[in-house]
Structure to design on (255 residues):
């Protein structure tokens, strides 16, 4: 069985406060970008052992640390799942704020549920996904949401950008999450992000921001330059997504 885990962008990202557990409370809008995706294939393995292979963008590190493998082993704790062969063709840039790893994990849960008729409900899949990472659960329903708390609590929002073109540029820079947070000064937002996205998109430039740009741009001016290039090309709105380093622009569709 083959599925296509897609990317997401963050529209606005406000770091509200640092929690006692060391994480941060934040708020953001997550929006799926379905035309940028990885390819994930899972088949039963007659050799009776778990196999994991990759192609496309190089994935470094022990395969046991990959979220697809972790998703398989998480479900294996509760279900009699046979051994499988997993192949991940990686297209979504890594460390870019596009949620590629989280999407792979969520789609892995969904493909196992379907392949082996596990009858896991959507809410149960969300609970499993939350154990794998803060934004993994978003990709279970894969619909625009308002994310809050650690970025793992969601409310669905009515946002449809299908009549626009979303262009994404990746400067081939991997942003470490710790680096992104290092110079952040959390502060409660004085605006309502859920209300701001209801305004015309050309207004977002002056009202919706990504707090990580304040800490990332001084150290990586080439990322800021990408954002400015988007506006030179007449983007209605442009922003770094997540903790970077990818930058997206929302454009009017060319007729």
């Amino acid at each position: 069985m083959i599925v296509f885990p897609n990317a997401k962008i963050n529209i606005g990202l406000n770091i509200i406060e640092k929690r006692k557990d060391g994480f941060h409370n934040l708020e953001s809008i997550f929006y799926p970008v379905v035309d940028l995706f990885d390819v994930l294939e899972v088949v039963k393995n007659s050799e009776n052992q778990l196999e994991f292979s990759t192609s496309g963008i190089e994935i470094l590190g022990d395969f046991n640390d990959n979220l697809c493998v972790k998703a398989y082993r998480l479900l294996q704790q509760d279900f009699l799942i046979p051994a499988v062969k997993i192949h991940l063709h990686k297209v979504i840039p890594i460390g870019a704020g596009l949620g590629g790893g989280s999407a792979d994990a969520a789609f892995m849960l969904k493909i196992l549920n379907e392949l082996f008729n596990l009858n896991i409900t959507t809410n149960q899949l969300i609970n499993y996904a939350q154990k794998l990472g803060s934004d993994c659960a978003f990709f279970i329903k894969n619909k625009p949401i308002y994310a809050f708390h650690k970025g793992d609590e969601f409310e669905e929002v009515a946002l449809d950008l299908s009549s626009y073109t979303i262009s994404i540029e990746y400067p081939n820079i991997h942003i470490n999450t710790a680096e992104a947070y290092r110079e952040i000064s959390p502060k409660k937002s004085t605006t309502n992000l859920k209300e701001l996205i209801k305004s015309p998109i050309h207004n977002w430039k002056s009202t919706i921001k990504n707090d990580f740009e304040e800490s990332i741009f001084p150290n990586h001016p080439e990322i800021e330059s990408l954002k400015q290039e988007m506006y030179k090309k007449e983007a209605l709105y442009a922003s770094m997504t997540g903790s970077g380093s990818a930058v997206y622009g929302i454009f009017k569709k060319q007729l």
Notes: The chain has two domains: 2-155, 161-252. The chain is about 30% helix and 30% strand. The first helix runs from residue 67 to 76. The first strand starts at residue 2 and ends at 3.
